[in-house]
Amino acid sequence: MNKVMSRTTHPRPRHRPPTRHDTRRPTTAPPRRPLTRAVRTSPERVRTAPAAPAPRQRPTDLFADRLLAVLSGRRPVHWMLRHTAGRGYDDLVRLAERSPLRTRGTHPVIHDIGYYVPRSGALEVFARIAAGPQLRALAFRLEQSPDLRWRCTAVETR
To answer: What are phi and psi of 54, to 5 degrees?
Structure first.
């Protein structure tokens, strides 16, 4: 026997507005862009090419930024918990206790990044960190997990 579920439509009372079936909240309006000079001076609209999507940041750059934020004290260590694996988190906790990249005055910035590929799915990355006249070194290892996400497995500073 095949059971068929059917709903009979009940007429809505006329004194209430129709109910919303979509449970998601309405989205906000996109931010307004200022008008260009050509649009202000002429009644015709200027057509431009659609903006290209922003290129995805490489994992080497992304992790260097994240590690710099933690080691300079701008972010807590647990912020990197889901982005580390194995000994990587322990190394990061040990280094963050000493705050090796924390400086007074100027914020440290990434000066240069390089990497070496020892095998497929692994990257050994080095970064030069500049804070005013001082230049420091940051090295870390990234490994790609089976779910294709990059995780930091080792961190060291000099």
So the answer is: -65, 135
Separation of alpha carbons 157 and 141, rounded Å: 12
Alpha-carbon distance of 102 to 97, in angstroms, equals 11
Tens-level pLDDT at each residue, the chain (158 residues): 444 444 555 565 566 666 666 666 666 666 677 766 554 555 566 667 777 777 888 999 999 999 999 998 899 999 999 999 989 999 999 998 887 777 777 889 999 999 999 999 999 999 999 988 889 999 999 999 999 999 999 999 98
Domains annotated for the chain, with CATH where assigned, are 59-157 (3.10.450.50)
Compute the distance between CA of residue 152 and CA of residue 140 in angstroms, rounded to an integer: 7
> How many degrees, rounded to 5, is the angle at CA 156 between CA 152 and CA 158?
150
pTM of this prediction?
Answer: 0.64
Q: How far apart are CA 15 and CA 12, in angstroms?
A: 9
- How many other β-carbons are positioned within 10 Å of the β-carbon of residue 65? 14
- The residues near 75 (Cβ < 8 Å, ≥ 6 apart) are 66, 69
Q: What is the dihedral of CA 141, 77, 109, 98, to 10 degrees?
A: -90
